[in-house]
Write a structure and sequence with these properties.
The complex is a heterodimer of chains A (457) and B (339).
Chain A lengths: L22 E3 L5 E7 L13 E2 L19 E10 L5 E9 L20 H10 L20 E5 L9 H8 L1 H15 L3 E7 L3 H4 L8 E5 L8 H8 L6 E3 L2 E3 L2 E5 H13 L5 E8 L5 E6 L4 H7 L9 E4 L6 E3 L12 E5 L17 H5 L6 H9 L3 H6 L10 H5 L6 H17 L4 H7 L14 H7 L4
Parallel strand pairs in A: 1-13, 6-7, 6-11, 7-8, 12-16
Antiparallel strand pairs in A: 2-5, 3-4, 4-5, 9-10, 12-13, 14-15, 14-16
Chain B lengths: L19 H23 L1 H24 L10 H11 L7 H14 L14 H11 L1 H4 L4 H4 L12 H8 L9 H5 L12 H14 L5 H20 L7 H6 L3 H8 L10 H21 L6 H9 L2 H4 L24 H6 L1
Helix pairs in contact in B: 1-2, 1-3, 1-10, 2-3, 2-4, 3-5, 4-5, 5-15, 10-13, 11-13, 11-14, 14-15
The chains are: A alpha/beta (457), B mainly alpha (339).
Chain lengths: 457, 339
């Protein structure tokens, strides 16, 4: 990524790349790894050695769907710590080059007449984990107010959706219409970056409106798209409920879903953009589950010792420690940094320069939030609107003191949600008083005198 | 999974390249022309004040940090900047021990006591200057008319603001505004080089080192309030242009009031801060015993920064959660008839 320009009167802008790179299909690798979030081997219907077919649901009845993307046999089943530090169940499959498609996944007959429930059930069966939020039962979940199909990519170094829009312009209209029917959204928006206005003018989108979006990061993030082109808030679920009624789907997932409805085949391949410090951006289409190493091999780039291998972009992505990390349905890009490009955060104080406030897309007071979180004062963060943070990473990108601002804000959010889940056990603590003598705040030690001093109500 | 020898760290994985050191070094760069003007007019005397001031500021920072067993951060340049700023608002003839004492007090009391760079509520250079000014035995050294009486500079050796205070606007009629603008006036080593401070300040604004809000509103504040005084009584008070071009206003607007830690971060806060600094400057010039009020105006407004930081856009409330309701199952015909 480039350094800031000589002129700094305005905050630096990160533009999405306006380049075209043809998508190259990579062959099926010898081994693939499928990841399933927070599951155990008991959720699987298959074990080591089982032969599986492409599109077969590997989940035990009712726990899935968890779809195999290749034909072969299961090699290994174990737990796996993903790059995002979450526990996954990993199923390793030795893949054959030839695909036998599982016949139990039929195409939807008579697509133009099918009911939304039928469409949703079919999409659900095909295992679109990335589309979970749009195929919910509207009897349980609130109605979707705005459905946004995004041609923008999540990261400035990714050109996946742009390229798919360039290559498959003729399929966009069908996808938009079918998706609008499937989700029963009250309005449908196709978000297109300004630089593709020429292509967008050729697409007739029917009921959907086309929103032109300046190709500046973070305009492609779902939360920002929802704010700028949707009903205001992105639909999110929490343990205690949900909020928002806009959903955002990337064009690639929308097209994959349409093809799944037409052919009955689940989403098997994912397009990712490969980039390194030098050289052009390259697009590769790989089987979901392919190790990142295959892409590195094809691009003939080897991460150097102490360098970085980053999935999902430099602004919000995760650094990997191995080239066996599999590509998942939500992997957008692979980036390799040389050791000299690696950026390190520093444990320095905030100098109150306000660069983070100026660049924050949701107008947070990042300088204040960062310091409050640094010293663990989470409850004050809530009043400053910390829940609105979209973790775009721009505050950390511009901080002259190299402070890990995104991590401070994430920590505060986590701290707040932990506090919300803590049982109100204060009364019990006052009763036993065992913690009193060691309490650093000397708060509980003087409970009796506190009670006497407190004014009688 | 086989681990490779790779660096693993959290996002974002790239950075725009801004550094604290670059902020400080850009300010030093922007101050070089004004400093050079001081060397040109006052020669070796100015050089020794600047050297002693920057050296003692960095020494003070290193000393207090080593006593407190903190990492020594003089390489970030912030101590050098505050030392240079203090030197530039002092007259060239000031004794060196005063410079050293002022810097030690400024850095230790004004900055490191509060936790170092970023935590200082007051600009350390201004704290150092104020200590000299309010100490009765030392205040005389800051009287420019007395301090610079022995120099041969080629312009009128009278401090314009002192003349204005003593004789009213008739006394300053012989000061050409162009001479004031070109820096041909008695004042601090660098603070009188108005045109060079303006150019240096504009360079910093363009580079994004300082924001434009504070300097602009500072100058507007001076002009508006000075204009009100001037329209009310043209014999006692100077014109707005004279007020901007004389004394410390230019260095105050671009360099003294824009210290990151002791100025607001939000746009409206900065505008109010700058305007009040400028307004307070003119009020102090007009009604206080001091000929110039920039330093005390900035120090006073520094104290209001936490309050001014509360001027901000209202944040939308976090999304209200709606509970998830179980699906309403339609009753079958038998159930309906049974009930």
């Amino acid at each position: 990524m480039g350094l800031r320009s000589f002129f700094g009167i305005l905050p630096p802008k990160l533009f999405y790349k306006d380049v075209s790179a043809p998508v190259e299909l990579l062959p099926v690798p010898e081994k693939i790894t499928l990841l399933w979030y927070r599951r155990t081997p008991s959720d699987l219907a298959v074990g080591v050695g089982t032969e599986v077919e492409t599109g077969q649901d590997l989940a035990r009845n009712g726990r899935g769907p968890f779809v195999s993307t290749v034909t072969g046999h299961v090699d290994e089943v174990n737990t796996f710590l993903g790059v995002d530090s979450r526990e996954y169940l990993a199923v390793q499959i030795s893949a054959d080059q030839k695909d036998n498609f599982d016949p139990s996944l039929p195409a939807v007959e008579d697509l133009s007449e099918a009911k939304p429930e039928t469409l949703r059930a079919s999409v659900n069966r095909a295992g679109f984990t990335a589309l979970k939020s749009i195929i919910r039962d509207p009897r349980v979940w609130p109605a979707i107010d705005a459905l946004i199909i995004s041609v923008l990519d999540l990261d400035p170094l990714s050109i996946v959706n742009q390229q798919i829009f360039r290559d498959n312009t003729d399929q966009v209209q069908a996808a938009v219409e079918l998706l609008a029917r499937t989700t029963e959204a009250s309005r449908c928006v196709l978000a297109v970056p300004d630089n593709l206005a020429g292509i967008a003018s050729k697409v007739s989108t029917g009921a959907a409106t086309v929103a032109m979006v300046p190709p500046v990061y973070p305009n492609g993030l779902p939360e920002i798209l929802a704010k700028n082109c949707g009903a205001g808030l992105l639909m999110k679920t929490y343990d205690t409920g949900f909020a928002g009624n806009t959903v955002v789907v990337s064009l690639e997932h929308a097209l994959a879903m349409v093809s799944s409805l037409q052919t009955g085949r689940p989403m098997l391949e994912k397009t990712v953009t490969f980039s390194s410090g030098k050289g052009e951006l390259q697009n590769f289409r790989v089987r979901i589950g392919t190790p990142v190493g295959e892409i590195l091999k094809r691009a003939s780039v080897n991460p150097q010792p102490k360098g970085k291998l980053i999935l999902n972009g430099t602004m919000r992505g995760y650094a990997c420690f191995s080239d066996e990390q599999p590509i998942t349905a939500t992997t957008e890009s692979v980036h390799v940094q040389e050791p000299s490009e690696v950026f390190f955060f520093q444990n320095t104080q905030c100098t109150n320069c306000g660069k983070c406030n100026a660049i924050c897309p949701v107008d947070l007071e990042v300088n204040l939030l960062g310091r409050l979180s640094e010293y663990g004062i989470y409850d004050k963060c809530r009043g400053l609107g910390i829940e609105n943070c979209v973790e775009c990473g721009l505050c950390g990108y511009v901080c002259p003191a190299s402070r890990p601002l995104v991590q401070f804000l994430t920590r505060a959010k986590q701290g707040l949600s932990e506090e919300a889940q803590e049982p109100a056990g204060m009364e019990e603590a006052l009763e036993c008083n065992a913690c009193g003598p060691v309490c650093p705040a000397i708060r509980l030690f003087d409970t009796e005198s506190d009670k006497e001093d407190s004014p009688k109500a | 999974m086989k681990a490779l020898d790779l660096t693993v760290s959290p996002a974002p994985h790239c950075h725009c390249g801004a550094r604290i050191t670059r902020v400080s070094y850009n300010i030093l760069l922007a101050l070089i022309p004004a400093m050079a003007m001081g060397f040109y007019y006052y020669g070796f005397d100015a050089l020794r004040v600047v050297a002693a001031s920057m050296g003692s500021a960095m020494l003070a920072e290193a000393a207090i940090q080593s006593i407190l067993r903190k990492p020594i951060t003089i390489a970030d340049g912030s101590a050098a900047v505050s030392g240079l700023l203090l030197a530039l608002i002092l007259p060239a003839s000031v004794p060196l021990y005063l410079v050293v004492v002022a810097n030690f007090v400024g850095i230790v009391v004004g900055k490191q006591c509060f936790g170092g760079l970023g935590a200082n509520p007051l600009n350390p250079a201004l704290v150092g200057w104020a200590v000299i000014r309010i100490t009765r035995a030392w205040a005389g050294y800051l009287d420019f008319d007395l301090a610079l009486v022995n120099y041969e500079t080629g312009f009128i050796l009278q401090y314009p603001l002192a003349v204005l205070k003593a004789q009213g606007s008739a006394g300053v009629a012989h000061f050409s505004l162009m001479d004031l603008f070109l820096g041909k006036q008695v004042g601090g080593i660098g603070s009188s080089a108005i045109i060079w401070l303006l150019l240096g300040g504009l360079y910093l604004v363009v580079r994004g080192v300082i924001r434009w809000e504070i300097p602009l509103s500072f100058l507007i504040g001076v002009a508006v309030i000075a204009g009100i005084f001037w329209l009310g009584d043209r014999t006692s008070y100077g014109s707005p242009i004279f007020n901007i071009l004389a004394g410390n206003v230019m260095i105050g607007a671009f360099f003294l009031s824009t210290d990151n830690a002791s100025s607001p971060v939000n746009q409206w806060g900065m505008l109010v801060f700058g305007f009040c600094c400028g307004a307070m400057t003119v009020v102090l010039r007009s009604w206080s015993i001091y000929p110039d009020g920039v330093v005390f105006a900035c120090l006073l407004m520094n104290l209001f920064v936490p309050l001014l930081d509360k001027i901000k856009k209202k944040q939308p409330l976090p999304p209200a959660l709606s509970p998830v309701t179980p699906p309403v199952m339609s009753k079958s015909a038998e159930e309906r008839s049974a009930s």
